[in-house]
Amino acid sequence: MSLTSFGPANLIKRSAETHPLTWRLRDDGEAVWLDEYQAKDGYTAARKAFADMSQDDIVQTVKDGGLKGRGGAGFPTGVKWGLMPKDESINIRYLLCNADEMEPNTWKDRMLMEQLPHLLIEGMLISARALKTYRGYIFLRGEYTTAAVHLRRAVEEAKAAGLLGKNILGSGFDFELIVHTGAGRYICGEETALINSLEGRRANPRSKPPFPAAVGVWGKPTCVNNVETLCNVPAIIGNGVDWYKSLAREGSEDHGTKLMGFSGKVKNPGLWELPFGVTARELFEDYAGGMRDGFKLKCWQPGGAGTGFLLPEHLDAQMYAGGIAKVGTRMGTGLAMAVDDSVNMVSLLRNMEQFFARESCGFCTPCRDGLPWSVKLLMAIEHGEGQPGDIETLLGLVGFLGPGKTFCAHAPGAVEPLGSAIKYFRPEFEAGIAQAKPGVPPLARPIVIGA
């Protein structure tokens, strides 16, 4: 699958006015280094932020632009920035870029880091100026080896050009940026688990409050933002709030553009920068090209393995948080997966739940014990050895591992696709339920109160 697949040529006309994230990309897929990046107006927004804007002005501009987190949660970025302490006596603060990107079927941040490393650095530089942070970390998924090489080279280029380090652009502001590679845990996508891992601790989520803005890396105020989120900052600062809001389609409550994609057995799997509010059908048919010959769309996930399954009739939903919520799930990362009609949903869910069970940090009981139970039940059903009541037990687990029932959002995300799969494809689960044979005890089952 190409990371730079941009769909039919007649549909893609990338420009700075319409594609703030991707217009600088090279057609050959090679990285855009400093000289070329600056020739394409790179660091112009940073120079504007340092010369013409106060820290509060930068925060307010991002807030007014309505930028929301692009990692999946969708929390307003300007609001998060506003949580950082105003006390000038706190002179140690950190900016942390979440580049762990271990959500299955998601590779958008990888493309940005490998091909536009200076866009991320510029976004972090402006953000650091706004937040008064003197040091930044890019917490990078360990398997992203090419991204690590490119980011480190770009950091050195920026240092040599006086865009990182001491007295940046003659402003008296210092900012050091460090690329840190992780050991490969899905739970590090949760910001406090990421902070623990950065500090050399076990990657368990922390209790909140206190939130990272008050007590983060090594006990100091810390702001954590996703790669794509930070890459939006230069365009907002450079072009203004009204321009940024104008990018989205009518009806969308989210502003700007979003990196969206489709994987699975589609004709043109890939990644595209599209305005919020585009319909999933347009993404699927016009950009991804629909299903390959011989395959039929059975269902799809809108944004990673932790989002619920939707049916073909849901393709007319608009791709923004509220638009996908109307059809019963979350937009997540915005990179969709098509499931074809040859796939057995029980087997697919068993595979997914195995992943989520393995990636649980094990801190809280519902997640630590509930996810392995779901795997055990699904394996039995997959092999035609399920017992009467197993589906009800699975649905009970979906409820008991839902939002607000566990220490972090890992388990709720893990069971959302399970609940939707049973909702839409229950006969496939029922087909794996065998009648109990006389004298043969059923497999051990969890006690699910009220199931």
TrEMBL record:
<keyword id="KW-0285">Flavoprotein</keyword>
<dbReference type="InterPro" id="IPR011538">
    <property type="entry name" value="Nuo51_FMN-bd"/>
</dbReference>
<dbReference type="InterPro" id="IPR019575">
    <property type="entry name" value="Nuop51_4Fe4S-bd"/>
</dbReference>
<dbReference type="Pfam" id="PF10589">
    <property type="entry name" value="NADH_4Fe-4S"/>
</dbReference>
<keyword id="KW-0479">Metal-binding</keyword>
<keyword id="KW-0874">Quinone</keyword>
<protein>
    <recommendedName>
        <fullName>NADH-quinone oxidoreductase subunit F</fullName>
        <ecNumber>7.1.1.-</ecNumber>
    </recommendedName>
</protein>
<keyword id="KW-0520">NAD</keyword>
<dbReference type="InterPro" id="IPR037225">
    <property type="entry name" value="Nuo51_FMN-bd_sf"/>
</dbReference>
<dbReference type="InterPro" id="IPR037207">
    <property type="entry name" value="Nuop51_4Fe4S-bd_sf"/>
</dbReference>
<dbReference type="InterPro" id="IPR001949">
    <property type="entry name" value="NADH-UbQ_OxRdtase_51kDa_CS"/>
</dbReference>
<keyword id="KW-0411">Iron-sulfur</keyword>
<keyword id="KW-0004">4Fe-4S</keyword>
<keyword id="KW-1278">Translocase</keyword>
<dbReference type="Pfam" id="PF01512">
    <property type="entry name" value="Complex1_51K"/>
</dbReference>
<keyword id="KW-0408">Iron</keyword>
<feature type="domain" description="NADH-ubiquinone oxidoreductase 51kDa subunit iron-sulphur binding">
    <location>
        <begin position="346"/>
        <end position="391"/>
    </location>
</feature>
<keyword id="KW-0560">Oxidoreductase</keyword>
<comment type="similarity">
    <text>Belongs to the complex I 51 kDa subunit family.</text>
</comment>
<dbReference type="InterPro" id="IPR011537">
    <property type="entry name" value="NADH-UbQ_OxRdtase_suF"/>
</dbReference>
<dbReference type="GO" id="GO:0050136">
    <property type="term" value="F:NADH dehydrogenase (quinone) (non-electrogenic) activity"/>
</dbReference>
<keyword id="KW-0288">FMN</keyword>
<comment type="function">
    <text>NDH-1 shuttles electrons from NADH, via FMN and iron-sulfur (Fe-S) centers, to quinones in the respiratory chain.</text>
</comment>
